[in-house]
Design goal:
This protein is α/β, with parallel strands linked by helices. The chain is built from ten helices and 13 strands. The strands form three sheets. Strands 9-8-7-10-11-13-12 form a seven-stranded mixed sheet, sandwiched between helices. It has a four-stranded antiparallel sheet with strand order 3-4-5-6, covered by helices on one side. The model has no long low-confidence stretch (mean pLDDT about 95). The structure holds S-adenosylmethionine. Catalyzes the irreversible transfer of a propylamine group from the amino donor S-adenosylmethioninamine (decarboxy-AdoMet) to putrescine (1,4-diaminobutane) to yield spermidine. One of its GO terms (biological process) is spermidine biosynthetic process. Pathway: Amine and polyamine biosynthesis; spermidine biosynthesis; spermidine from putrescine: step 1/1.
């Protein structure tokens, strides 16, 4: 049995024993490998970076979905950029009020192979009649679509390879353009202890673009280096300041069963540590 050594960071990283290699291919866009690991279940990596594991994917997908959707409270149209493994789509589909889900994933091979080798991630969500799956560059889509969305979730790889453009100023501006009144953009934004510059860059691009911008966090074990941050940009300053009781009512009304998300976690996730606040130039978590 060989090992899978993540190569995201020079001189520091995580290693998985590959108990079974399930699939490996160079797609049109990236190198993909899916393997079985006794502790973490099935694991997918793209271009040397761990993307998702069966064991801990619920944390990431629940937090990047239920925080914006329950804060918005009336989202009908949702856009997912990336998300080829289908885990985000599975969580969005759990919201009965959502009427239309557009998912723009650049690499159709990721979708096909995750349907085959990571079926628990999507759990049939790709067959949801609300889904419009578009195989295209998310940047091109948000720059050209005339559709508007209540929530946009950028579930991208790190800013390397095809994912790099999803951290650009143009991307955030285009997403802002595609948001309906009261809309919210959330994005995967790396682990600040290891990728502080990524948070700083995003902060500088969100500032002035959104009525309210901030970050929220969750510790996802296989996104190594500490808690992961999610960027938050909203056209409505009230969405991030909902009373706990309001969140509790929304969560109860949704009827969604979770393994990580709850209203208290939702509220607490927006409390950033000092070094992150200083890095993004904010005096506090207000
Ligand atoms: N949870 C992972 C993380 O936090 O790094 C992301 C998982 S998901 C597999 C990332 C997806 O983004 C991949 O399927 C990749 O093909 C897709 N992607 C990368 N660049 C893209 C782009 N420019 N447009 C659309 N999808 C893109």
């Amino acid at each position: 049995m060989s090992d899978y050594q993540e190569t995201l960071y020079d001189g520091y990283g995580q290693r998985f024993r590959m108990d079974t290699l399930l699939h490996e291919v160079r797609t049109e866009h990236q190198h993909l490998v899916i393997f079985e690991n006794a502790r973490m279940g099935r694991v997918m990596a793209l271009d040397g970076v761990i993307q998702t594991t069966e064991a801990d994917e619920f944390i990431y997908h629940e937090m990047l979905t239920h925080v914006p959707l329950l804060a918005h409270g009336a989202a009908r149209r949702v856009l997912i950029i990336g998300g080829g493994d289908g885990g985000m789509l599975r969580e969005v589909c759990k919201h009965p009020g959502v009427e239309q889900i557009t998912m723009v994933e650049i690499d159709g091979t990721v979708v096909d192979l995750c349907k085959t080798y990571l079926p628990k991630h999507s759990s049939g969500a790709f067959d949801d009649p609300r889904l419009n799956l578009v195989i295209d560059d998310g940047m091109r889509f948000v720059a050209t679509t005339d559709q508007r969305f209540d929530v946009i979730i950028s579930d991208s790889t790190d800013p390397i390879g095809p994912g790099e453009v999803l951290f650009s100023e143009n991307f955030y501006q285009a997403c802002r353009r595609c948001l309906a009144d009261g809309g919210i953009l959330v994005t995967q934004n790396g682990t600040p202890f290891m990728q502080l510059a990524e948070v700083q860059t995003t902060a500088s691009r969100m500032h002035g673009l959104f009525a309210d911008w901030h970050f929220y966090q969750a510790a996802v074990p296989t996104y190594i280096g500490g808690a992961m941050t999610f960027a938050w940009g909203s056209t409505d300053i009230g969405h991030r300041r909902l009373a706990l009781d309001t969140l509790r009512q929304s969560f109860a009304k949704s009827g969604i069963a979770t393994r990580y998300y709850n209203p208290e976690i939702h509220q607490g996730a927006f409390a950033l540590p000092q070094y992150v606040l200083q890095a993004i130039g904010k005096p506090g978590n207000d």
